[in-house]
Specification:
By secondary structure, the chain is an alpha/beta fold. It folds into two domains: 60 residues, no CATH class; 149 residues, Alpha-Beta Complex (Spore Coat Polysaccharide Biosynthesis Protein SpsA, Chain A). It is built from eight helices and nine strands. Pathway: Glycan biosynthesis; hyaluronan biosynthesis.
């Protein structure tokens, strides 16, 4: 069956279902028919409540079926080649609440995407920022796949005591740690969120094909990477994808903050433009 026809049938079916539910609710409200009620109607269950309950049940069923279909489709997604499908998740951290940071890193660990690279860049390298590196070691460290580096500088501001040689050595070290490690943490001189993201993008370079970013108070759904990558893979006209943003306690149990994915080609272009404007 053609896709357009299938879509049209779904739209018509959904509209008819909505009209039927609305009509039933109005009829139940007008008639006020009661199935069960106590004396003086302190407790009662009528047609209105039954229709609302049935509506909720049907919606939950369809939501479950759609969620299962998306999960199965995500697991069955075949990328054109392993090289084309490489993804790095970049986490920007700044004086984060320890519990939030742990939840963020644990959710990154549960993402169902093969060989996902995780890069956490901490905006600050002082002693009071060290607890974030400790949490990184606690959740993602302890294996040969994990690496870290405490940098006195960042890419645009030289730290105290740095020389030209040590600055270059630090830049090389950042790149080596990020590219060689599945899980990496870079602590650097404070410079703001853009500086943190610049470090992650610059260090990754062209070593991955896609970059996904989030803040350190984000709890990521296990399927988020594969679902966003699907959109980018299916349509070459799309250069970036945003995730479903939900505050804690709203909607689903997943606490999604800002989740984005962007192609490395666009990142490389922005980095090059930044170099040009800075040198000029």
């Amino acid at each position: 069956m053609p896709v357009q026809l299938t879509t049209a049938l779904r739209v018509v079916g959904t509209s008819l279902f909505a009209l039927a539910v609305l009509g039933g609710i109005l009829a139940a409200y007008v008639t006020g028919y009661q199935f069960i009620h106590t004396e003086k109607h302190y407790l009662s269950f009528g047609l209105y409540g039954a229709i609302l309950g049935l509506h909720l049940l049907i919606q939950s069923l369809f939501a479950f079926l759609e969620h299962r279909r998306m999960r199965r489709a995500g697991q069955a997604l075949k990328l054109p080649s392993p090289r084309r499908g490489s993804v790095a998740l970049c986490i920007a951290a700044y004086q984060e609440d320890p519990d939030y940071l742990r939840k963020c890193l644990r959710s990154a660990q549960r993402i169902s995407f093969p060989d996902l690279k995780v890069v956490m860049v901490v905006d600050g390298n002082r002693q009071e920022d060290a607890y974030m590196l400790d949490i990184f070691h606690e959740v993602l460290g302890g294996t040969e796949k994990a690496g870290f580096f405490v940098w006195r500088s960042n890419y645009h501001e030289v730290g105290e005591g740095e020389t030209e040689a040590s600055l270059r050595e630090g830049m090389d070290r950042v790149q080596d740690v990020v590219r060689a490690s599945t899980f990496s943490c870079i602590m650097q001189k404070w410079g703001g969120k853009r500086e943190v993201m610049y470090t992650a993008f610059k260090a990754l370079g062209d070593s991955v094909d896609y970059i996904q970013v989030c803040d350190s108070d984000t709890v990521l759904d296990p399927a988020c990477t594969i679902e966003m990558l699907r959109v980018l893979e299916e349509d070459p006209q799309v250069g970036g994808v945003g995730g479903d943003v939900q505050p804690p306690g709203k909607g689903m149990a997943v606490e999604d903050d800002q989740v984005q994915a962007a192609q490395v080609r666009a990142i490389e272009a922005s980095i090059h433009q930044h170099h040009v404007s800075r040198e000029q």
